[in-house]
Amino acid sequence: MTNKSIGFIGGGRVTRIFLEGWQRANAMPGRIVVSDCNGETLTQLKTRFLQVETAPGNSAAAAAQDIVFLAVHPPVMAQALAGIKDDVKPGAIVVSLAPKFTVAKLTELLGGFSRLARVIPNAPSVMNLGFNPVAFSPALSAADKVEIAVLLKPLGDSPEVAESKLEGYALLSGMGATYLWFQLQTLREVATGFGLSDADITPALKRTVCGATRTLLESGLTPAEVMDLIPVKPLAEMEAQVSELYRTRLPALYQKLKP
């Protein structure tokens, strides 16, 4: 647990993910202030996390903390930064949780403030199983990096990466679960029709997904050899269509996210 105060500009999904992960790990920072223009969003957040201070429509309150997380979508980032640039303390650290806006652009929008980090958040952080790559501004010291690492550690892994790779991680790990969850949930529902209970399905599905991933990445077999391990492929005729969706939609989105 850090002794630094934490501010969140935005109280939506990403903020909830961080708070849930910290709470689950019993690593909630001592003071957290969350601002959002939607009062109902903050009310719901306060119901779930009683210790959080909320500041409806008052971004200055969150921006004045020691470590400030920018938990807003790229389309409103510039507007959000214009509203807080005069409220950020000189010694604070500002952490962007959004793609597209580089450290250089964030510095410009914050009137020259350069004590910045960027993180691509990962939803499994709610279970302390996240993968949250981080890139740091040259203005941050080794001690500053440790402060951020302490906050991210309860959420899962947080490797330091080159800033130029963050948008790639946004597509791979940041959004990756969305490519799989609906399929896994459908398989879970269908399996109940095979006479399996939830107690039967949960360990089997968990081990199957984790094992399949490790077999593809760590077995030493080629992808073709891995995919040949199971002779019966009930969805084989649809694989090409699904693969084509990945190969067309994701690169197109990546181009939109690139700075």
Give me some keywords for this one.
Rossmann fold, ProC C-terminal domain-like fold, 12% strand, 7-stranded mixed sheet, two-stranded parallel sheet, globular, alpha/beta, 259 residues
Characterize the structure shown.
The chain has 259 residues and is an alpha/beta fold. The protein has two domains: 6-162, Rossmann fold (3-Layer(aba) Sandwich); 176-257, ProC C-terminal domain-like fold (Orthogonal Bundle), CATH 1.10.3730. Helices cover 49% and strands 12% of the residues. It is built from eleven helices and nine strands. It has helices at 13-24, 39-48, 59-63, 77-84, 103-109, 142-152, 166-174, 176-192, 198-218, 223-227, 236-257; strands at 6-9, 32-36, 53-56, 67-70, 93-96, 116-119, 130-131, 134-136, 156-157. The strands form two sheets. Strands 3-2-1-4-5-6-8 form a seven-stranded mixed beta sheet, with helices on both faces. It has a two-stranded parallel ribbon with strand order 7-9. α7 runs antiparallel to α11 and α8 packs across α9. The chain starts with 5 loop residues before the first strand and ends with a helix. The model has no long low-confidence stretch (mean pLDDT 97).
